[in-house]
Fold:
Amino acid sequence: MASRHPADSPVPGQRRRAVGEETPEDPGREPPFLDLERLEERARGALPEDVYDYYAGGAETETTLAEAPGAWRSWRLRPRVLRGITAVPLATELLGSAVATPIGVAPWAYQGMAHPEGELATARGAAAAGALMTVSTSATQTLEEVAAEMPGSPAWFQLYRLHSGAHTDDLARRAGDAGYRALVLTVDLPLLGRRRRDLAHDFALPADLRMANHPPAGDRPGLSDLATATWTFDDIARFGDLSGLPVVVKGVLRGDDAVRCVQAGASAVWVSTHGGRQVDPAVASAHALPEVVDAVGDEVEVYADGGIRSGSDVLTALALGARAVFVGRPTIWGLATGGSAGVTGVLVGLGEELAHTMALCGVDDVRSVPRDTVVPAR
Ligand SMILES: Cc1cc2nc3c(=O)[nH]c(=O)nc-3n(C[C@H](O)[C@H](O)[C@H](O)COP(=O)(O)O)c2cc1C
Structure:
């Protein structure tokens, strides 16, 4: 097969051009593959320093943040040969909703800082990729506005416990009314992680943006005010009843907690370190996932996020028992550099890598990737 890679066939005597390297006659030429590091650099150049640091940063020494991608790569793929696989469909169902890809958008706050259209652009970008979007409580547009931007495309609403219990209950009801398909309770934020970059910048949401889902009187809390009142396992059933939606518990890193979540009524468990923004150093999602799957994977769907940066990272997560994965920062960089098309590009690009790696590994169903497709690296 002919390669699309220009550097594979240099003109004799000419220096090989590094992939992605720009030349005067060829400014800004995109590399013919998803280059997330380059995308992040471009986003960094386009964003104010404190905004970039808010998006990119983690808690404390940023050990969880730094270790996340490498933890997926501490597993190795074991390809199957001679399986006659030529095409790999990525379509699957998440809590009964059909999606075109097992790669969804993780909830992330304050999207209006990355792009003037904020969450609306992400919603269109995810819908164009057929990907599930999880909308954050801390969105800069209301949950109804975001839902209206992606009619027919399944979305979930992520809930934080706000200071006002009544307002929190109201958000859960509104999510049900607005057509979201699940409520994601984020339970790893009983108080905000100590994010040194944000503390150094004294970071705050820019004055022209608002936390649209927060009560009007208190919709501009400082970051430390975002600390939530304590939630307990009983809230899983309670918020399921209030919203009329299946509940996904996000931020679980232990098998015993996962069991208690399921006993309390959770329909799914989402393994996450909150992108390294809360406990530091925490066990990596890639290392916690097998324990959680062993504990509850036969009963409920299990998802994972944190440091997923390639199709092979996705395949590793699926082999370890995840039904789907979610990405945060890659979609931030996509939104900041290319709006809705940038988000679509990241999701489609990761999906293409996943399909390619699956075909190479002789695996053709994202819903049942055999566990022995991966083995710990030695
Ligand atoms: C800037 C930023 C804001 C986030 N905001 C939220 C949020 O509002 N609610 C939530 O549940 N998780 C939030 N997260 C965590 C993400 O949902 C997700 O767990 C994490 O970003 C996945 O890691 P990744 O960025 O390496 O893909 C946020 C993450 C980032 C980077």
